[in-house]
Amino acid sequence: MRNMNLFSNPRAKWLGVALIAIALIGLPFALASAGTAWVRIANLAILFVFLSLGLNIVVGFAGLLDLGYIAFYAVGAYAYALLASPHFALHLPFWVILPIGALVACLFGVLLGAPTLKLRGDYLAIVTLGFGEIVRIFLNNLSQPVNITNGPQGISRIDPFSFGSFSFSRSETLLGIAFSGPIKYYYILLALLLLAIVVNLRLQHSRIGRAWEAIREDETAARAMGINTTRIKLLAFAMGASFGGIAGGMFAAIQGFISPESFVLVESVMVLSMVVLGGMGNIWGVVLGAVLLSFVPELLRYTVEPLQKSLFGRSIVEPEVIRMLLFGLALVLMMLYRPAGLLPSAVRKRELAKPDEGAAA
Amino acid sequence: MSSALLECAGLDKRFGGVLALAEVGFSIRRGEIYGLIGPNGAGKTTLFNTLTGIYPCDAGGFTFAGAPLAGLRPDQIAARGIARTFQNIRLFGNLSALDNVMIGRHVRTRAGVFGAMLRTRATLEEELQIERRALELLGYVGIAARANDVSRQLPYGDQRRLEIARALATEPQLLALDEPAAGMNATETLELKKLLQRVRADGTTILLIEHDMKLVMGLCDRVLVLDYGRRIAEGPPREVQRDPRVIEAYLGAA
Asked: Inter-chain contact A347–B106, Cβ cutoff 8 Å?
């Protein structure tokens, strides 16, 4: 609410909401005119927003640094792939598997959380980093003696989302408008994302959300106030992991193919960057961070080469290099000018401000 | 006077080779204000930390309202009805005063993850109650106007009051205060005294560590004096004040 005073006038607020809704509904068609690839990019961006929201619960709300978050994405993706592909000849519907994926990831969250609860800061970060790698390596090697994950070859021909004969992977014409597969996915992902945002907002402003904040601020005081820190921290890991699991399931369905290579450390770092760039602890900030970091690299990919060709007649610096350079530059600029993120939460901003700026005494 | 609320017997606490508390024993009656004094390093805060479950004790222990506290975690002890404040104020500094007190309600409320996600009627009602009670408590300690201020930026005296409000939010039977008047001026101390008398009159027993002797003498029904982790005197303030061992502990042997 604090960051919403822009819309203090209710009419302006509803107008704003309506405009955003129209933009979001129209977006895939605008993107499709630039190529279906852009719709796919938008879909991946939504998945990353989903992931960032999940990680934000752990890092932003409860203040537990997790560098292996992508493991839960992997768990969700593999749960989906194993239950809806020819690999085990299982073909459960997606609305059954997504909750299962969330549950399995939640279980892994507790599995990671339980032994690491006593760790804080750097130590926790290192253990979670190890956990992420362990999960990936397991996925890579669980092809023998019993072939569960099919090893580095990954699992292919994963079922798309479908309701009976309505499949999300086919193109279709409804009411005279052509809906391509990715566009259909866009809408269902967007719907799930809105649901996730509502859940996150509600969690943040609840008894549990306050307990997370209390732990982040001062664990000893939180315990003295009767907060069972063990349970509340596990809850953060479990909730964050569930979001990762659902996102993983959606990823598997959209791509139709997954392998351990999709779940490397860099992906964890990427999601964490989205959370930090946007503003840890602020849901809208996290959304912004994830959208930016999903789209900007793709924009570069499509603009850097042609730009160089037209300027110099040939390509001097590869897009990938430029991307990393800009990443580094963004990192430094952020540290200097917006250490709490682009849209910081009010609380985080205070944390990163000079320690005793306002304390009277 | 009614029966004992808190009993402590044969309490030892060791840090390596240092015996911080040695065979300490006392009992606090329901409804009294019980003072805990002693020179710096006497073990007062250590006693608080063992009482509230932050440190385990090496021998002996506490019985609270008839049940032993041994082996309980701090949050379980808070649930049993002991709330505390800290010598070096430990508020949730970046949160508002209101949020601090609302967090204090955690242990007396129930809403879980699903209640929060679904916003059930029960959850919404509980939230309203939490906020109402927190505002009440802010008014009770006299800082209602500060509800939305960031707690770290409150004046020092208000931070102390806020810590008391947060502790009261857990509905304690015993309120343990670690030097609540430290750093307060005379006016603030007088107001604190009135506040604590009101808390007691409203049915909460108080255990008080304090260096301000005027406050201790004017407020406490009985006082326990510790020196080097040992109990050296106990009784009404007037008597304790004249005890030669107490005078020696504070001023040194003649």
From this structure: no
- Both B64 and B31 in one domain: the answer is yes
Q: Among residues B156, B171, B186, which one ends one of the domains?
A: B171
Task: State the total domains in chain A.
Answer: 1
Residues of chain A neighbouring B73 (CB-CB closer than 8 A): 223, 228
Closest-CA distance, B74 to chain A, in angstroms, reads 5
Answer whether residue B200 is part of any domain.
Answer: yes
- Dig out the tokens for B224 from the structure: 């326990």
Q: Is residue A166 part of a domain?
A: yes
Q: How many helices (H) and strands (E) does chain A have?
A: 13, 6
Domain boundary among B171, B201, B231: B171
Of residues B55, B85, B57, B113, the one with CA closest to residue B174: B85
Q: Which of A60, A100, A24 is nearest to A272 (CA)?
A: A60
Per-residue pLDDT tens over the stretch B210-237: 988 899 999 999 999 999 999 999 999 9
Q: Is the pTM of this model over 0.80?
A: yes
Q: Which domain holds residue B12?
A: 1-81+173-254
Dihedral, A330, A331, A335, A341 alpha carbons, nearest 10: 80
Show which of residues 66-85 on chain B sit within 8 Å of chain A, judged by CB atoms: 73-75, 78-79, 83-84
Work out the angle between the directed axes of helices A36-56 and A265-278 (0-180°, nearest 10).
80
Q: How far is CA B28 from the centre of its chain?
A: 13
Please check whether residue B86 lies inside any domain of the structure.
no
**Alpha-carbon separation of residue B61 from A224, B25, B50, B55, B244 (angstroms):** 18, 9, 9, 12, 29
The predicted-structure confidence for B30-80, as pLDDT tens digits, reads as follows: 999 999 999 888 999 999 999 999 999 999 999 999 999 988 999 999 999
Number of folded domains that form chain B: 2
- State the complex-level ipTM: 0.92
